[in-house]
Design a protein that fits this description.
Elements lengths: L11 E7 L6 H10 L9 H8 L7 H6 L12 H17 L2 E8 L1 H5 L17 H19 L2 E9 L6 H10 L5 E7 L9 H13 L3 E6 L5 H9 L5 E4 L7 H9 L3 E4 L1 H6 L11 H7 L3 E4 L4 H4 L3 H12 L3 H14 L4 H14 L9
Parallel strand pairs: 1-2, 2-3, 3-4, 4-5, 5-6, 6-7, 7-8
Helix pairs in contact: 4-6, 7-8, 15-16
Length: about 350
């Protein structure tokens, strides 16, 4: 279905993609062998049978996929840096010129939870060191592949105890690839300590750290309202259920809120109707909303960014002009400093044959 030829061959910007969902299967097998960690398979094809899927599952079943391969990566210094470097290489092959990649420093460190998510003992790799290693991998990838890569650090809904440290890491490593904070995980989990996420986001706002939130993917529109009103989100990850609340939807249109859409992901996680002609992206496009397309978790969804673009063209009628506009949307809504954002926009304008902008 995906095919080899890119549907949109001009430079692209991607804002919603997870580092731990973008790992090469060969790299997973390499570190499983090196660390003598037994996985469900010892070949690429066998591993993908357990990790990647092509038919819709529940969101809980999707999250369980990470358990099948993260034991090989989490807690290993060399592996953490390598996956960041290889991620940039992957995006270069997809024609991406700017990407914001997100991850949980604690999950890559194999930090203590009950139970430890990947079934291993807690290691000596700290979340702080994880961020430094990812930064190194991204910077080296940027140097070698000419893709500007920045990172977003994720708080996790089910682990509010981590959130204070996440925002401190955002503050410590701002301007060293880290550009924002995110809240990820299962929206349907009831979190009695949500106040700790709120406190982290209040600190982020106070310190000028940019903010995005996974909301309205599988959770109701009220989660989007919470993200906007309480967490002061500047962008919404997914946000499909926003359309179920016309008042909220109009408010976010008026605010020019950016929606980070992932069509193929939304199908496989059962977040949206399986009929792509009725996908929320269609209404957002028709309403001239601020949105862009991203690949979310390419390893698990068995895709590249090109698949999402092909879906948008084949089933939603997207034109090249609309692909251009949504990439400009992404550049305008990215979390780069204003000077670098202007440089990125001018890079796109030149590539798209448009007049260079003098102002944002």
């Amino acid at each position: 279905m995906e095919g080899k030829l890119p549907i949109f061959e001009k430079p692209k910007v991607e804002l919603h993609v997870h580092l731990d969902g973008s790992i090469k299967p060969e790299t997973i097998l390499h570190y499983a062998n090196k660390r003598q960690i037994k996985l469900l398979a010892d070949t690429v094809e066998g591993l993908l049978q357990h990790v990647a899927y092509k038919e819709p599952l529940s969101f809980t079943e999707f999250l369980a996929k990470f358990n099948h391969y993260m034991p090989a990566i989490a807690g290993d210094r060399e592996a953490v840096k390598r996956i960041a470097y290889e991620f940039v290489e992957m995006k270069a092959k997809e024609g991406v010129v700017y990407v914001e990649v997100r991850y949980s420093p604690h999950l890559l460190a194999n930090a203590k939870v009950d139970p430890i998510p990947w079934g291993q003992e807690e290691g000596d790799l700290s979340p702080d060191e994880v961020v430094r290693l990812v930064n190194q991998g991204l910077r080296e990838g940027e140097r070698d592949f000419s893709v500007k890569a920045r990172s977003i650090l994720c708080c996790m809904r089910h682990m509010p105890n981590w959130s204070a440290e996440v925002v401190e890491l955002c503050k410590k490593y701002r301007n060293d690839t880290v550009v924002a904070i995110d809240l990820a995980g299962d929206e349907l989990i009831s979190c009695e300590a949500f106040s700790r996420h709120r406190e982290a986001y209040e600190e982020a706002l106070k310190c000028g750290i940019h903010r995005t939130v996974h909301a309205g993917e599988v959770g109701p529109s009220s989660v989007v309202r919470e993200a906007v009103d309480i967490l002061k989100a500047e962008r919404i990850g997914h946000g499909y259920r926003t359309l179920e609340d016309p008042v909220l939807y109009k408010e976010l249109l008026d605010k020019n809120m950016h929606f980070e859409l992932c069509p193929w992901s939304s199908y496989l996680t059962s977040s949206c109707c399986s009929d792509f002609t009725k996908h929320p992206a269609v209404q957002l496009r028709n309403d001239k909303a601020n949105y862009s397309l991203s690949s979310d978790d390419p390893l698990i969804f068995g895709s590249t960014l090109n698949k999402d673009y092909k879906l948008a063209k084949k089933y939603m009628g997207f034109t090249e002009e609309e692909f251009i506009q949504m990439n400009i949307n992404a550049a305008q809504s990215c979390f780069l400093p204003e000077t670098e954002k202007k440089e990125l926009l001018n890079q796109l304008y030149e590539a798209y044959g448009m007049i260079l902008s003098t102002e944002l």
